[in-house]
Amino acid sequence: MAARLILILHLIIGVCYCHTSALGRRNDHYVKLPVVHSTNRKVFADFGDKRAITTVPLANRSDVAYYAQLDIGTPPQQVYVQLDTGSFELWVNPDCSELQGSADIRFCRAVGHYNPSSSSTALQIAGTKTLRYGIGSAMIQYVSDNIGLAGTDSLLKGIQFGVAIDTVDEFAGILGIGHGENVTIRYKNFIDELEDQGITQTKAFSLALGGKDEQEGVVIFGGLDTGKFTGTLQTLPIIPARESPDQVPRYWVNMTSLSLTPPSGQTKQYEDTTMAVFLDSGATLTLLPTNLANTIAADFGADATDANGFYPVSCSLNDLSGTLNFAFDGVTIHVPYNELVRELQTSFGTQCFLGISPSDDFILLGDTMLRSAYAVFDQTNNAVHLAQYVNCGTNEIEITAQTNLSAITGECDPTATKNTAGTSSGVSTATAAESGASRTSTPGASGSSSSPSTAGSLDSYGQFGLRIWMAAAAFWVFINL
């Protein structure tokens, strides 16, 4: 009997150790936040019928955007903010009353409102400021308060941010996660505070927006997820501000070429496409030089932009399997047609537009490109680490000062995603709709796989199952010895 009890005790200790190890992983210096698409009705149930949107230019900001939840103040007040790699400051409380479309107003109200007077930890800071964006602006009053990160036990204390006094053409507050203190502003921004308060070890974060069909992605501050990309992360140096096109510290990197692979598989290389671009999750569209944008749009069947500056295209492009290919040093991001074509539900029915817009003032890669990329924004090492986005599960890794990001390889098989397409080394004059404009392609033109990964550490279900198995084994030993 003593031998039985000792063996059972060993098995029980093993079960408890397994459980304790799973909990111990919470001590890693990273924090994960879901990034939800504005059309995710599970989150923004009050958004309502998008056909009620009456101003197309404003829809440019609201219909394709990504939001993270913050719990601000004591007690916490839930607020959703747009995740923006193209700006530097956090602010909340847009003025919903100045918006025109009824759905715009409902969405604005659905993101939540922060009331400093309802928080026992709120402090007003002297000073106001006007923040200007590509679309819209916000005049803010600075305050400081505690901010909890939804779904975690992490709490940032005494964070400085803005509360809007007045806004123009803004649907939600913005979480700017660009460079902060002594680079673009005089105080510690969100990324600075995460490191300063010990929640992360570095000023690095990874971003996977997820495909249109997923409606949800993830940002990991201080970590990354090898279950969200294929291939090895390629390190692209951030172009110093003094050498960048606008002389502003942003996530500027060098793009080496741009090409189109239509359903026929014959790749067309666009000329003069080596250029500096910056990665901007706060921008719906990808902005390219006018001549280049017009050439690409023509290959997608658009003769010119409409009155709102969009390229109208056929919605049937969503069913084709081609890609637009953004090449960088060591990696090419293949963006499927499905991710490039924007569908807007209007009072006139479904209208489709190309997710690219002409601009001779600014060149940026917005959400229509970033959905197909996995990016690690690394302020500590002044680099962006890039790979093709694929979703094959979850395996999170902390980023430390010793982490060699250039040596980290994703766990996903390229064939597991719809976001990749084969390319041909030949140059052709193929158009986007060639070889299949009037037919639908086989499944696999866009989106991504969500099959779980078994590599890396076990998830919570795996740990639970293992404990059940070991307990059953202990019982079997007891009745058979």
Q: Helix/strand-derived class?
A: alpha+beta
The largest sheet, given as strand count, sense and whether it forms a barrel, is:
6 strands, mixed, barrel
Using only C-alpha atoms, the radius of gyration works out to 24 Å
Q: How far do the termini sit from each other? A: 9 Å
Shape: globular
Flag low-confidence runs: 1-27, 47-63, 417-429, 435-481
Q: Mean pLDDT, as a whole number? A: 81
Q: What fraction strand?
A: 25-35%
SS element count, helices: 8
Based on DSSP secondary structure assignment, what is the total number of beta strands?
Answer: 26
Strand order of the largest sheet: 2-3-8-4-7-6
Instruction: Estimate percent helicity.
Output: 10-25%
Characterise the protein shown here.
It is globular, with a radius of gyration of 24 Å. α1 runs antiparallel to α8. It has helices spanning 2-24, 56-62, 102-110, 190-196, 290-299, 337-340, 367-370, 460-480, and strands at residues 31-37, 66-72, 77-84, 90-92, 123-132, 137-149, 155-168, 173-176, 204-208, 216-221, 223-225, 229-237, 252-255, 257-261, 268-269, 275-279, 286-288, 323-328, 331-336, 341-346, 349-354, 356-358, 364-365, 373-378, 383-389, 396-398. The longest helix has 23 residues, at 2-24. Strands 2-3-8-4-7-6 form a six-stranded mixed barrel. A four-stranded antiparallel β-sheet has the order 15-14-18-19. The protein has a three-stranded mixed β-sheet with strand order 13-16-23. It has eight helices and 26 strands. The protein has 481 residues and is of the alpha+beta class. The chain is 18% helix and 32% strand.
